[in-house]
């Protein structure tokens, strides 16, 4: 059997994850955490490009991985134009939109760019992204806000939400497309999606829109206060953007983007840390309740996933508020690396056609 070597790169807001597979066999996996102070010197996401690329290449060198053998570089894709779920080969149009950050700035914008750069330096590698954060399956009614020029947008952890949705269904003898699920991904950002028979018909905008606050995002804010702050003369445009994305949420309240650090403080008896972490959980649970209404109460399961799903305080808090809706399943971490590898192998084996980003 032909062996395909796939490099998977996943730049998240608080981490860079790297994996190498020979066919389905994992030969290397590393999660490099980036505490807030390490990323603070970079003014923009684009400024992190060299840093993140170096991190990836150094890890591969240190692990003695023969990168010349790589056939495909799979990346978690970023804030390009809204597109359907699937695998896209990195092309010039995609790179241009990733560079601009046409729908905003997020570490995953670097994924396709770094993948392309690495693939081009190798003898026969191709670069792809799959299920980027802009996968858009929203129902029309879910797009409308009270201000026609500011519609709601689908920006979420599409790759992992769909991967764990499929895993949940498979392990229970169903297919994902038969079930109604609510998936809460809790990472540097938090997204909560209403999955109706394989389509995410409603979800919060996890980057700079609305929804629960998260380790580094402010989430929904009182709009009057937000307008006042913008015009107060105290902040530049970039500073306001950073308040909403990057320096919001746990970073703003507690000075760290690491939920495990907050959990340690809570265990040590820090009442303020407990109140803030509780507020984040409370907002997540309320949003899950909203998704139950979207699905008209017909919910087969609630899935809690992402790095913070390792945190027992968080899980217990949310479970207590929502387990009256449907059974709660917990998938700590994410299945993004496996999902990217599987998508890459399907294309390299010509089992699916990759889509063209135009
Ligand atoms: N074992 C753990 N216990 C509690 N929180 C954790 C644990 N592992 C990771 N986290 C938290 O999960 C968050 C990162 O989640 P992750 O899904 O890796 O996000 P991202 O992809 O945005 O970097 C961080 O706040 C981190 O502190
Ligand atoms: C839009 C979802 C992307 C996101 O928030 O990812 P991180 O949790 O990795 O920042």
Protein described:
With 358 residues, the protein is an alpha/beta fold. The model has no long low-confidence stretch (mean pLDDT 95). It has helices at 36-39, 49-62, 92-100, 109-120, 140-143, 158-171, 223-230, 237-244, 249-254, 259-267, 271-294, 312-322, 336-348; strands at residues 5-11, 15-22, 25-33, 70-76, 87-89, 126-130, 180-186, 190-196, 199-203, 301-306, 328-332. It has 13 helices and eleven strands. It folds into two domains: 5-136 and 336-348, ATPase, nucleotide binding domain (Nucleotidyltransferase, domain 5), CATH 3.30.420; 158-332, Nucleotidyltransferase, domain 5 (2-Layer Sandwich). The longest helix has 24 residues, at 271-294. Helix 3 (92-100) packs across helix 4 and helix 11 (271-294) crosses helix 12 (312-322). 38% of the residues lie in helices and 19% in strands. The strands form two sheets. The chain has a six-stranded mixed sheet, with helices on both faces. Residues 12-13, 106, 133, 155-157, 187-189, 191, 206-207 line the site of ligand LANB7ZPL. Ligand LANB7ZPL is lined by residues 12-13, 106, 133, 155-157, 187-189, 191, 206-207. It is an enzyme of class 2 (transferase). InterPro entries: Aliphatic_acid_kin_short-chain, Aliphatic_acid_kinase_CS, ATPase_NBD, Butyrate_kin. One of its GO terms (molecular function) is acetate kinase activity. It catalyses: butanoate + ATP = butanoyl phosphate + ADP.
């Amino acid at each position: 059997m032909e062996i395909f070597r796939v490099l998977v790169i996943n730049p998240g807001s608080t981490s860079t994850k790297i994996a190498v597979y020979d066919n389905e066999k994992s030969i290397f996996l590393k999660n490099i955490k980036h505490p807030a102070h390490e990323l603070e010197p970079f003014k923009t996401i684009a400024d992190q490009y060299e840093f993140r690329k170096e991190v990836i290449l150094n890890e591969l060198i240190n692990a003695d991985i023969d990168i010349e053998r790589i056939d495909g570089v799979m990346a978690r894709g970023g804030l390009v134009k809204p597109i359907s779920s699937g695998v896209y080969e990195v092309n010039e149009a995609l790179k241009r939109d990733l560079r601009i950050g046409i729908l905003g700035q997020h570490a995953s914008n670097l994924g396709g760019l770094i993948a392309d750069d690495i693939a081009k330096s190798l003898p026969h590698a191709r670069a792809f992204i799959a299920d980027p954060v802009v996968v858009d399956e929203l129902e029309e009614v879910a797009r409308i806000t009270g201000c026609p020029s500011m519609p709601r947008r689908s920006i979420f952890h599409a790759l992992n939400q769909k991967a764990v949705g499929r895993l949940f269904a498979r392990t229970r003898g169903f297919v994902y497309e038969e079930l109604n699920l609510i998936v809460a991904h809790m990472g540097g950002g938090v997204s909560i999606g209403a999955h109706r028979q394989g389509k995410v018909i409603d979800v919060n905008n996890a980057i700079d829109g609305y929804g629960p606050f998260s380790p580094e995002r402010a989430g929904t804010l009182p709009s009057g206060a937000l307008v006042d702050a913008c015009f107060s003369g105290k902040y530049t445009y970039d500073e306001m953007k950073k308040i909403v994305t990057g320096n919001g949420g746990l970073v703003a309240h507690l000075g760290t983007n690491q939920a495990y650090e907050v959990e340690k403080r809570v265990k040590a008896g820090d009442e303020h840390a407990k109140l803030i972490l509780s507020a984040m959980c409370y907002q997540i649970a309320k949003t899950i309740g909203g998704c139950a209404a979207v699905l008209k109460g017909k919910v087969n399961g609630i899935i809690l996933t992402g790095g913070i799903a390792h945190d027992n305080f968080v899980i217990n808090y949310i479970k207590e508020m929502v387990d009256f809706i449907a059974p709660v399943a917990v998938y700590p971490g994410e299945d993004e690396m496996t999902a990217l590898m599987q998508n890459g192998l399907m294309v390299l084996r010509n089992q699916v056609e990759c889509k063209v980003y135009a």
